[in-house]
Amino acid sequence: MFLADGRYNFCGNVDVLEVIEEYGCPLYVYDYDIIKRQYNRLAKAFDGTSLKINYACKSLTNVNILRLIRQLGAGLDAVSIQEVKLGLHSGFLPDEILYTPNCVSFEEIEEAVGLGVKINIDNISILELFGQKYPDYPICVRINPHIMAGGNSKISTGHIDSKFGISMYQLPLVERIVKATGMLVEGLHMHTGSEILDSEVFLNGAEILFHAAKSFDQLTYLDFGSGFKVSYKDDGIETDIEDLGEKITKRFKAFREEYGKDLTLKFEPGKYLVSEAGYFFVKTNVVKQTTSTVFAGVDSGLNHLIRPMFYDAYHKILNVSKPQAKSRIYTVVGYICETDTFGINRKINEVQEGDILCFKNAGAYCYQMSSNYNSRFRPAEVLIYKGQSHIIRKRESFEDLLKNQVELPELTQATVEV
Ligand SMILES: *Cc1c(COP(=O)(O)O)cnc(C)c1O
Predict the structure, then answer these.
(1) What is the mean pLDDT of residues 346-362?
(2) Which atom of ligand 1 lies at the shortest distance from residue 100's CA?
(3) What is the pLDDT of residue 200?
(4) Which end of the chain is more exposed for a tag (fewer CB within 10 A), N or C?
């Protein structure tokens, strides 16, 4: 973690302050070695069975990341037609992409048929329509197992009143539609939400999927979605992948025997693969002491990293400019004209104006949720790969703010009458 002179060094052998010097701030930096470590750890935990990992690319869709993750052996989980197209552009074969839409138009689903990717259907009316129009196109069915899990209500997707999936109580209806239209169900899917800590929650869900699978005799895969939690606080509170791997592998093998056919076990992690690989660096513009609080105000805000405000997510904050300074308590805030607090009462090495702060776990749902709010530019993205830093997305510029605006000629005169 530290270089010999005390500076931080958490991206391979690259000095982060030099990287920031070169590319500027605010900056997202991704360390490929960590993505690889996470992929291999997951693959190893389930190596007793035929496993396919589909990367949930909504967490981080830079095409370089997609290409590297494909090289590791992963397929892709895409939730929009645009993600499907980014996947194809990055070299994924149609067969390696599972498209899992929710509440999209039927036209978008038809576009996916045209592209030849695997399609996961999560609604009865769509299933019916799809079966009538494309009875020969194999599909996956997303089941809602009615399990309440996940780090918070915005990322819990498998409970009873969630909008995702087809209720397991509607399975007889699914079977009737499948029979009537002659469609081929090759996969069953569930995704109960993010940040599940207990292996038992997975196992309960698994039983529901195994039970449902008995009603479909042409399955080739079962997809258990994701929900793997990684530690945000360095407190070790994370999904125990090895324990889960052992338990699921054992149960999956037994079910395969029972089912009588070879089945592939699929997972689709996003956060697990990329969260810890990402770092977000910002510069401290002001240190502001009030009667109650010491604020560190940085050159970023909810426009670049919204998880703390949107989900109350915790991102560890370090002062990379002062690795050896004594710590003090700060409330770290952004520069947006709205309360955008990154962290309250955090113990951080003494911050001076100009210091570079780092948010950890900034790989998943961070850059991807950024915006132009307050007409600020989105940050650049840098990849650390084979010991070198590479720019993989340019910082936005003023032209980008105007790019899609249509300027009416009659309003561009120097003086406008009011
Ligand atoms: C978001 C999502 C995932 C990934 O969830 P993580 O918590 O990032 O691992 C997987 N599958 C589906 C269908 C999703 O919507």
Answers:
(1) 97
(2) 13
(3) 81
(4) C
